[in-house]
Amino acid sequence: MNSERPQSRERPEAREQPDEAAPDGRGRPIGRRVFLGTLGLGALGVAAAPVLQRGLESFLAGASDKDPTGLTGLLPNGGGFRYYSVTSSVPRKSAGTYRLTVDGLVDRPRAYTLADLRALPQTRMVRDVQCVTGWRVPRTPFEGVRLSRLLDAAGVRATAGAVRFTCFDGAYSESLTLAQARRADVLVALRMQDEDLGHAHGGPVRLYVAPMYFYKSAKWLSGITVTEDVEPGYWEERGYDIDAWVGRSNGRDDEPTN
Ligand SMILES: Nc1nc2c(c(=O)[nH]1)N[C@H]1C(S)=C(S)[C@@H](COP(=O)(O)O)O[C@H]1N2
Ligand SMILES: [Mo]
Protein backbone atom coordinates (compact mmCIF):
# COMPACT_ATOMS: atom_id res chain seq x y z
CA MET A 1 0.00 0.00 0.00
CA ASN A 2 2.53 2.54 1.16
CA SER A 3 5.22 1.68 -1.37
CA GLU A 4 8.05 4.04 -0.60
CA ARG A 5 10.19 4.20 -3.71
CA PRO A 6 13.76 5.39 -3.70
CA GLN A 7 13.66 9.05 -4.54
CA SER A 8 15.13 10.30 -7.75
CA ARG A 9 16.31 13.40 -5.99
CA GLU A 10 15.95 14.84 -2.55
CA ARG A 11 12.62 16.49 -1.86
CA PRO A 12 12.71 19.87 -0.15
CA GLU A 13 9.77 18.96 2.11
CA ALA A 14 11.69 15.87 3.28
CA ARG A 15 14.77 17.98 3.78
CA GLU A 16 13.12 20.30 6.32
CA GLN A 17 14.60 19.10 9.61
CA PRO A 18 14.30 20.32 13.19
CA ASP A 19 17.35 21.86 14.86
CA GLU A 20 18.29 18.76 16.79
CA ALA A 21 18.18 16.36 13.84
CA ALA A 22 20.55 13.43 14.32
CA PRO A 23 21.17 10.32 12.23
CA ASP A 24 19.19 7.24 13.27
CA GLY A 25 21.99 4.90 12.28
CA ARG A 26 20.64 4.08 8.83
CA GLY A 27 21.48 7.39 7.29
CA ARG A 28 18.01 8.80 7.77
CA PRO A 29 17.95 11.94 9.88
CA ILE A 30 15.49 11.85 12.75
CA GLY A 31 14.66 14.57 15.24
CA ARG A 32 15.25 13.36 18.77
CA ARG A 33 12.55 15.49 20.31
CA VAL A 34 10.06 14.37 17.69
CA PHE A 35 10.97 10.72 18.21
CA LEU A 36 10.58 10.90 22.01
CA GLY A 37 7.34 12.78 21.53
CA THR A 38 6.11 10.07 19.19
CA LEU A 39 6.86 7.33 21.70
CA GLY A 40 4.98 9.27 24.36
CA LEU A 41 2.07 9.66 22.00
CA GLY A 42 1.97 5.93 21.35
CA ALA A 43 1.70 5.21 25.06
CA LEU A 44 -1.02 7.84 25.39
CA GLY A 45 -2.92 6.26 22.54
CA VAL A 46 -3.12 3.03 24.51
CA ALA A 47 -3.93 4.69 27.83
CA ALA A 48 -6.57 7.00 26.40
CA ALA A 49 -8.07 4.81 23.69
CA PRO A 50 -11.62 6.18 23.98
CA VAL A 51 -10.42 9.78 23.57
CA LEU A 52 -12.60 11.69 21.14
CA GLN A 53 -11.41 11.27 17.59
CA ARG A 54 -11.37 14.99 16.98
CA GLY A 55 -9.12 15.58 19.98
CA LEU A 56 -6.72 12.83 19.00
CA GLU A 57 -6.67 14.00 15.42
CA SER A 58 -5.64 17.51 16.36
CA PHE A 59 -3.11 16.17 18.87
CA LEU A 60 -1.61 13.97 16.17
CA ALA A 61 -1.63 16.86 13.77
CA GLY A 62 0.27 19.01 16.25
CA ALA A 63 2.89 16.30 16.67
CA SER A 64 3.25 15.56 12.98
CA ASP A 65 3.59 19.26 12.14
CA LYS A 66 7.09 18.81 13.52
CA ASP A 67 7.63 15.27 12.29
CA PRO A 68 10.14 14.93 9.44
CA THR A 69 10.12 11.13 9.82
CA GLY A 70 6.50 10.51 8.96
CA LEU A 71 6.23 8.23 11.99
CA THR A 72 3.12 9.96 13.31
CA GLY A 73 1.44 8.97 10.06
CA LEU A 74 1.70 5.37 11.23
CA LEU A 75 -0.18 6.07 14.47
CA PRO A 76 -3.92 5.40 14.92
CA ASN A 77 -6.17 7.76 12.97
CA GLY A 78 -3.39 8.91 10.68
CA GLY A 79 -5.07 6.63 8.12
CA GLY A 80 -1.90 6.46 6.03
CA PHE A 81 -1.75 10.24 5.74
CA ARG A 82 1.00 12.44 7.02
CA TYR A 83 -0.25 15.77 8.26
CA TYR A 84 1.72 18.62 6.74
CA SER A 85 1.95 22.29 7.50
CA VAL A 86 4.72 24.71 6.64
CA THR A 87 3.77 26.89 9.62
CA SER A 88 4.05 25.91 13.28
CA SER A 89 0.41 26.77 13.95
CA VAL A 90 -2.68 27.55 11.91
CA PRO A 91 -5.70 29.51 13.13
CA ARG A 92 -8.97 27.58 13.28
CA LYS A 93 -11.89 28.66 11.12
CA SER A 94 -15.47 27.65 11.78
CA ALA A 95 -18.63 27.91 9.71
CA GLY A 96 -19.05 31.34 11.32
CA THR A 97 -15.60 32.74 10.56
CA TYR A 98 -14.55 31.00 7.34
CA ARG A 99 -14.49 32.99 4.08
CA LEU A 100 -13.29 32.08 0.60
CA THR A 101 -12.65 35.06 -1.65
CA VAL A 102 -12.63 34.85 -5.43
CA ASP A 103 -11.04 37.89 -7.08
CA GLY A 104 -8.46 39.09 -9.59
CA LEU A 105 -9.26 39.11 -13.30
CA VAL A 106 -12.99 38.44 -12.84
CA ASP A 107 -16.15 40.47 -13.49
CA ARG A 108 -17.89 39.43 -10.24
CA PRO A 109 -15.51 39.04 -7.29
CA ARG A 110 -17.15 37.62 -4.18
CA ALA A 111 -16.63 36.06 -0.77
CA TYR A 112 -18.24 32.70 -0.03
CA THR A 113 -19.20 31.50 3.44
CA LEU A 114 -19.11 27.80 4.23
CA ALA A 115 -22.90 27.74 3.97
CA ASP A 116 -22.67 29.33 0.50
CA LEU A 117 -20.28 26.59 -0.63
CA ARG A 118 -22.40 23.83 0.91
CA ALA A 119 -25.45 25.13 -0.95
CA LEU A 120 -23.77 24.59 -4.34
CA PRO A 121 -23.86 21.22 -6.19
CA GLN A 122 -21.30 18.83 -4.70
CA THR A 123 -19.09 16.41 -6.64
CA ARG A 124 -17.64 13.27 -5.02
CA MET A 125 -14.52 11.56 -6.38
CA VAL A 126 -12.60 8.53 -5.15
CA ARG A 127 -8.96 8.47 -6.24
CA ASP A 128 -5.56 7.60 -4.78
CA VAL A 129 -3.60 10.35 -3.04
CA GLN A 130 0.11 10.54 -3.88
CA CYS A 131 2.64 12.73 -2.09
CA VAL A 132 5.82 13.57 -3.94
CA THR A 133 7.91 12.22 -1.03
CA GLY A 134 6.58 8.73 -1.75
CA TRP A 135 3.59 7.93 0.44
CA ARG A 136 0.32 7.01 -1.20
CA VAL A 137 -3.16 6.54 0.23
CA PRO A 138 -5.46 4.47 -1.98
CA ARG A 139 -9.10 5.15 -2.74
CA THR A 140 -9.67 8.38 -0.82
CA PRO A 141 -13.07 10.05 -1.22
CA PHE A 142 -13.09 13.84 -1.63
CA GLU A 143 -16.24 15.90 -2.04
CA GLY A 144 -16.87 19.53 -2.82
CA VAL A 145 -17.62 22.17 -5.41
CA ARG A 146 -15.92 22.03 -8.79
CA LEU A 147 -13.45 24.91 -9.06
CA SER A 148 -14.72 25.48 -12.62
CA ARG A 149 -18.15 26.32 -11.18
CA LEU A 150 -16.72 29.08 -8.97
CA LEU A 151 -14.67 30.43 -11.87
CA ASP A 152 -17.71 30.49 -14.17
CA ALA A 153 -19.76 32.24 -11.47
CA ALA A 154 -17.03 34.88 -11.14
CA GLY A 155 -16.80 35.55 -14.87
CA VAL A 156 -13.16 35.06 -15.82
CA ARG A 157 -11.86 37.82 -18.09
CA ALA A 158 -10.31 37.15 -21.50
CA THR A 159 -6.83 38.25 -20.39
CA ALA A 160 -6.67 35.61 -17.63
CA GLY A 161 -4.37 32.61 -17.93
CA ALA A 162 -3.92 31.19 -14.44
CA VAL A 163 -5.29 30.88 -10.92
CA ARG A 164 -3.44 31.50 -7.68
CA PHE A 165 -4.51 29.96 -4.36
CA THR A 166 -3.74 31.38 -0.92
CA CYS A 167 -4.25 29.93 2.52
CA PHE A 168 -5.21 31.20 5.96
CA ASP A 169 -2.06 29.67 7.45
CA GLY A 170 -0.54 32.87 6.06
CA ALA A 171 2.28 31.13 4.17
CA TYR A 172 1.26 28.44 1.70
CA SER A 173 0.27 29.13 -1.88
CA GLU A 174 -0.36 27.22 -5.06
CA SER A 175 -1.31 27.86 -8.65
CA LEU A 176 -2.74 26.20 -11.74
CA THR A 177 -3.10 27.24 -15.35
CA LEU A 178 -6.66 28.21 -16.19
CA ALA A 179 -7.02 25.05 -18.31
CA GLN A 180 -5.90 22.88 -15.38
CA ALA A 181 -8.16 24.78 -12.98
CA ARG A 182 -11.17 24.13 -15.19
CA ARG A 183 -10.71 20.34 -15.18
CA ALA A 184 -13.61 18.34 -13.78
CA ASP A 185 -11.29 16.58 -11.30
CA VAL A 186 -10.27 19.77 -9.48
CA LEU A 187 -12.42 20.51 -6.43
CA VAL A 188 -12.80 23.09 -3.73
CA ALA A 189 -13.19 20.27 -1.20
CA LEU A 190 -15.40 20.43 1.88
CA ARG A 191 -15.26 16.73 2.74
CA MET A 192 -12.58 14.04 2.75
CA GLN A 193 -12.97 10.36 3.66
CA ASP A 194 -16.72 11.02 3.81
CA GLU A 195 -16.39 13.44 6.73
CA ASP A 196 -16.29 17.21 6.91
CA LEU A 197 -12.66 18.24 6.42
CA GLY A 198 -11.00 18.45 9.83
CA HIS A 199 -8.53 21.17 10.73
CA ALA A 200 -5.55 18.80 10.42
CA HIS A 201 -6.36 18.01 6.79
CA GLY A 202 -6.83 21.67 5.89
CA GLY A 203 -10.45 22.22 6.88
CA PRO A 204 -12.93 23.59 6.63
CA VAL A 205 -11.95 23.93 2.94
CA ARG A 206 -8.96 22.76 0.91
CA LEU A 207 -8.16 22.48 -2.74
CA TYR A 208 -8.14 18.97 -4.27
CA VAL A 209 -6.25 18.49 -7.54
CA ALA A 210 -6.81 14.77 -8.17
CA PRO A 211 -4.34 14.11 -11.02
CA MET A 212 -1.40 15.95 -9.44
CA TYR A 213 0.94 15.39 -6.52
CA PHE A 214 -0.75 16.24 -3.25
CA TYR A 215 1.26 19.45 -2.71
CA LYS A 216 -1.02 21.08 -5.29
CA SER A 217 -3.97 20.44 -2.94
CA ALA A 218 -3.58 23.56 -0.80
CA LYS A 219 -4.96 23.18 2.72
CA TRP A 220 -6.84 25.92 4.63
CA LEU A 221 -7.85 27.55 1.35
CA SER A 222 -8.87 31.19 1.73
CA GLY A 223 -8.25 32.88 -1.60
CA ILE A 224 -8.69 32.16 -5.30
CA THR A 225 -7.20 34.89 -7.46
CA VAL A 226 -7.43 34.81 -11.24
CA THR A 227 -4.15 36.06 -12.72
CA GLU A 228 -2.54 36.59 -16.08
CA ASP A 229 0.31 34.08 -15.63
CA VAL A 230 1.15 31.20 -13.32
CA GLU A 231 2.93 32.30 -10.17
CA PRO A 232 4.99 29.48 -8.59
CA GLY A 233 3.60 28.24 -5.27
CA TYR A 234 5.33 27.71 -1.93
CA TRP A 235 7.05 24.41 -2.77
CA GLU A 236 7.58 25.39 -6.39
CA GLU A 237 9.73 28.30 -5.22
CA ARG A 238 11.70 25.57 -3.44
CA GLY A 239 12.23 23.20 -6.34
CA TYR A 240 9.03 21.26 -7.08
CA ASP A 241 7.58 21.16 -10.59
CA ILE A 242 4.74 23.59 -11.29
CA ASP A 243 3.00 21.09 -13.56
CA ALA A 244 2.77 18.32 -11.01
CA TRP A 245 1.12 15.41 -12.87
CA VAL A 246 1.50 12.23 -10.85
CA GLY A 247 4.07 9.97 -12.53
CA ARG A 248 5.03 12.57 -15.12
CA SER A 249 6.82 15.21 -13.08
CA ASN A 250 9.35 15.75 -10.30
CA GLY A 251 11.50 12.96 -11.79
CA ARG A 252 9.11 10.29 -10.46
CA ASP A 253 7.36 7.38 -12.14
CA ASP A 254 4.39 6.71 -9.81
CA GLU A 255 1.23 5.15 -11.16
CA PRO A 256 -1.46 7.73 -12.00
CA THR A 257 -3.96 8.39 -9.19
CA ASN A 258 -7.14 7.21 -10.95
N1 LIG B 1 -1.57 25.13 3.46
C1 LIG B 1 -0.84 24.01 3.20
N2 LIG B 1 -1.29 23.16 2.25
C2 LIG B 1 -0.58 22.03 1.98
C3 LIG B 1 0.65 21.75 2.62
C4 LIG B 1 1.08 22.67 3.61
O1 LIG B 1 2.14 22.49 4.25
N3 LIG B 1 0.30 23.79 3.89
N4 LIG B 1 1.38 20.64 2.30
C5 LIG B 1 1.09 19.99 1.00
C6 LIG B 1 1.66 18.65 0.91
S1 LIG B 1 3.31 18.54 0.48
C7 LIG B 1 0.91 17.54 1.07
S2 LIG B 1 1.54 15.98 0.80
C8 LIG B 1 -0.50 17.63 1.50
C9 LIG B 1 -0.69 16.90 2.82
O2 LIG B 1 -2.04 16.90 3.18
P1 LIG B 1 -2.49 16.27 4.57
O3 LIG B 1 -1.76 17.03 5.64
O4 LIG B 1 -3.97 16.43 4.63
O5 LIG B 1 -2.06 14.81 4.56
O6 LIG B 1 -0.95 18.97 1.69
C10 LIG B 1 -0.42 19.91 0.77
N5 LIG B 1 -1.06 21.19 1.03
MO1 LIG C 1 3.58 16.31 -0.17
Blueprint (SSEs and pairs):
Blueprint: H1 12-15, E1 21-23, E2 29-31, H2 32-47, H3 53-65, E3 100-104, E4 110-112, H4 114-119, E5 123-130, E6 136-146, H5 147-154, E7 162-167, E8 173-177, H6 178-181, E9 186-192, E10 195-196, E11 206-209, E12 221-227
Parallel strand pairs: 3-12
Antiparallel strand pairs: 1-2, 3-4, 5-6, 6-9, 7-8, 7-12, 9-10, 9-11
Helix pairs in contact: 2-3
Bound molecules: ligand MTE and molybdenum atom.
- Report the principal-axis shape: globular
Distance between the termini: 15 Å
At the fold tier of CATH, the topology name of the largest domain is Sulfite Oxidase, Chain A, domain 2
Give me the side-by-side strand order of the main sheet.
Answer: 4-3-12-7-8
Strand content: 15-25%
What's the CATH C level of the largest domain?
Alpha Beta
| Overall average residue pLDDT | 80
Bound molecules: the ligand Nc1nc2c(c(=O)[nH]1)N[C@H]1C(S)=C(S)[C@@H](COP(=O)(O)O)O[C@H]1N2, molybdenum atom
- H and E order: HEEHHEEHEEHEEHEEEE
What count of structural domains?
Answer: 2
Q: Poorly predicted ranges (pLDDT <50, ≥5 residues)?
A: 1-9, 15-57
